[in-house]
Amino acid sequence: RESELDMDERIRLIEEAIENGNYIEMVYLKGSNERTHRVVRPLSLGTESFRGREFLGMRAYCTMRRAERMFRVDRIISMRVLSPEEAEALE
Predict the structure, then answer these.
(1) Torsions phi, psi of 64, nearest 5?
(2) Are 83 and 23 in contact (CB under 8 A)?
(3) Which member of 12, 48, 49, 52 has the lowest number of beta carbons within 10 Å of its beta carbon?
(4) How many angstroms separate the Cα of 2 from the Cα of each of 14, 25, 74, 80, 82?
(5) What is the pLDDT of residues 31-87, one digit of tens each?
(6) How many whole angstroms separate alpha carbon 26 and alpha carbon 47?
(7) Of 84, 34, 44, nearest to 63 (Cα)?
(8) Alpha carbon of 30 to those of 7, 74, 82: distances in Å?
């Protein structure tokens, strides 16, 4: 089930997914303030910089784009952890 999560909970779920090789299904707010639905396999989590501003970023393989992408953790609206099998069923 999807629900709005605080930053600590988002971080915990992402770290857990990285550790266990799981995927995350999320609703993400793009820079244009457009909501997008993504299924990603998180690869790393850390401080990133864009145009001189730092943010907490999740580097992940995006199944929609079939490429690695960077996602700002503070722009994740809702998320849930999926097993690789569950993620594959959604493709």
Answers:
(1) -70, -45
(2) yes
(3) 52
(4) 14, 9, 16, 6, 12
(5) 899 999 999 999 999 999 989 999 999 999 999 999 999 999 999 999 999 999 999
(6) 20
(7) 84
(8) 17, 11, 22
Q: Which of 30, 31, 23 is nearest to 63 (CA)?
A: 23
pLDDT tens for residues 66-80?
Answer: 999 999 999 999 999
- Residue among 52, 89, 50 at smallest CA distance from 70: 50
Q: pTM value?
A: 0.88
Q: How many CA atoms lie within 13 A of 30 on its CB side?
A: 7
Alpha-carbon distance of 74 to 21, in angstroms, equals: 22
According to the 3-state scheme, what is the secondary structure of the chain? Answer: CCCCCCHHHHHHHHHHHHHHCCEEEEEEECCCCCEEEEEEEEEEEEEEEECCEEEEEEEEEECCCCEEEEEEHHHEEEEEEECHHHHHHHC
